[in-house]
Amino acid sequence: MNIQQIYERRFRSDREFRKNMWKILCKDFFQQYISEKDIVLEIGAGYCEFINNIRCGKKFAVDINPDINNYASNDVEVILSKSDNIDSIDTESIDVIFISNLFEHLERHVIVDTVQEIFRILKHGGKLVILQPNIRFAYRDYWMFFDHITPIDDRALVELFKTKNFRITKIITKFLPFTTKGRLPKAMILIRIYLTMKFLWLIFGRQSLIIAEKIRE
Q1: Residues 217, 141 contacting (CB under 8 angstroms)
Q2: How many other C-beta atoms are found inside a 10 Å radius of the C-beta of residue 200?
Q3: Side-by-side strand order, sheet with 166-172
Q4: pLDDT at 19
Q5: Is 130 helix (H, G, I), strand (E, B) or coil?
Q6: Is the per-residue pLDDT at 3 higher than 80?
Q7: What is the mean pLDDT of residues 37-46?
Q8: The domain containing residue 198 runs over which residues?
Q9: What backbone phi and psi angles, to 5 degrees, belong to 177?
């Protein structure tokens, strides 16, 4: 499977919208979980919409797609690597790890190994912030993308994190819509309104947000 060709075709038409959307998501929502001194790593960074826009002390972006080098900002250190073996990142060196829409692309044993690698990399008390399509709510459209191979819901992820010595600090089971390919309007003001009106999450949310903290083994 040619990752570069698939993602270029999939996101070409709404790349500008996604870039502006993530500016708002970072500023109006995700920034509350990240301080300006934190060392932040995004795994499966793709076009770097999150890591480019979050404010923090130091930034790393991991992906297997070499196109990432064309989109990462100058203050982002890019690492071409699989998610389950990021050996260029030191043990207990990262404050926050962010993952969005990654695990559905991985086989189960790779997900487990990735979580173990996250545990290695995070500092004690460090945070994992994960945004993940939830098969419980997105089952009608979950398989619309050819590279989705593993169905996951919030309960399964929580169980996995707990077995790997993470403490769950926050769960929003229904947060963002499943995909930007949907029919919802794409005006930036509507994204800001959506983030402030949590009852809309219950109607349109198909992705879950989970925040977990590394505890001692």
Answers
A1: no
A2: 15
A3: 76-80, 58-63, 39-43, 94-100, 122-133, 207-214, 166-172
A4: 87
A5: strand
A6: no
A7: 97
A8: 3-214
A9: -60, 165
